[in-house]
Amino acid sequence: MRPLVILLVVAGCKSSSVSSSPPATGDYCRGQALRAPGSATLGTQTGSEVKPAHTFSIVARDPVTGDLGVAVQSHYFGVGSTVVWAEPGIGAIATQSFVEPAYGPRGLALMRDGVAAPDAMAQLVAADKQESVRQLGFIDAQGRVASHTGAKCIAVAASHVGNGYAVQANIMANDRVVPAMAAAYEAAKGDLAERMLAALDAAQAAGGDLRGCQSAAILIVSGTRSDTPWKEKKLDLRVEDSADPLRELRRLVLLGRAYDQENQGDLAIEKGDINAAVEHYGNASRIAPDNIEMVYWSAVSLAGAGRIDETIPMFKRAFSADRAWQELTRRLVPAGLLTQPTAERILKDGR
Predict the structure, then answer these.
(1) What SS3 state is found at 13?
(2) What span, in angstroms and rounded, lies between the C-alpha atoms of 323 and 311?
(3) With the C-alpha atoms ordered 330, 333, 334, 335, is the resulting torsion angle positive or negative?
(4) Which among 98, 66, 72 has a CA at the least distance from the CA of 85?
(5) In 98, 129, 254, 328, which residue has its Cα 20 to 30 A from 23's Cα atom?
(6) What's the sign of the alpha-carbon dihedral 181, 187, 188, 191?
(7) Below-50 pLDDT ranges, the chain
(8) pLDDT at res. 142
(9) Residue 96 and residue 136: Cα distance in Å, rounded?
(10) Rounded distance, CA 219 to CA 193, Å?
(11) pLDDT computed for residue 66 by the predictor
(12) 194 in helix, strand or coil?
């Protein structure tokens, strides 16, 4: 594996290529115009332990892979930092409206102990004196799912529980948002990320958050319980503050897919399967054709495996983009990633 591969862009509150497109920009996030520079918004007020993360979200389980996920968009800075929670082989949770972040770790702890998602939610809601302002979505590794919308969540507030998923929303522009999310998720093709993104896009297209939009996040974990849960995280991407957070989130998901292919190529190199490595590196290049760092590290991996001739055009492309890659090539020799003769040939023929 290369020294450093940035797989994730994290932050945000209130894996195949991405095929569908988000709505056009322009009036897409009209609520941004309501926020004057330097002015306070609902999401930045202080003095309360209750954080108002009003938003729309989805929790879901992929019936094929068992992957568990949660995705969200909101007109609230950094929505992903408090709303989205998931643990491999355990479950996924969205906690929003006047959000109590403790629902995340406490709900996952109950599900880890074998409590079904609906029962775990019910226990926590029953113990919460402010449940009337909470909105929640819970799903466990068996696909058992529940949603809660407190009676005092700000209108339009609603939720829907489907087969292996739940959608929930509050402060929506209209009552079409939740039905649109459910219909889009059920009709969407592709993996879990693609289907959840389709639900978010449909929510925004139907009217979305009354205030507009600001941040978004997606978290997907494996459906397999593990003693090393950090290895079972599929996606953890956040857009903290953007005029078009869903479009940016899709860009990051696409880039994450490219880096995943790059890492699969590295693993193939480690196993001595050069042909598989070439295929994975090619996939990465097709997904992110303008990412020079991917080109460079793919070339390094293949050169280190003895496939120098086919890497020269790759090194030429990297060197022509930035001469810093030439200096890095020299530094890879003492690091043991390239031999001196290999590096010398790369630098000579890649000029």
Answers:
(1) strand
(2) 17
(3) positive
(4) 72
(5) 98
(6) positive
(7) 1-26, 31-49
(8) 98
(9) 6
(10) 9
(11) 98
(12) helix
Say how many CA atoms lie within 13 Å of 99 toward its Cβ. Answer: 30
E strand intervals along the chain: 51-53, 55-61, 68-74, 84-87, 91-99, 134-140, 145-149, 158-162, 165-169, 215-221, 233-239
Are 151 and 125 contacting, i.e. CB atoms less than 8 angstroms apart? no
CA distance 87 to 225: 8
The domains of the chain, with CATH numbers, are 27-252 (3.60.20.10), 258-349 (1.25.40.10)
Give the number of other Cβ atoms within 10 Å of residue 114's Cβ: 9
Mean pLDDT score across all residues of the chain: 87
Residue 268, amino acid:
A
Task: Please name the amino acid found at residue 252.
Answer: L
Q: Model pTM greater than 0.85?
A: no
Residue with tokens 């029953």: 126
DSSP state of 198: H
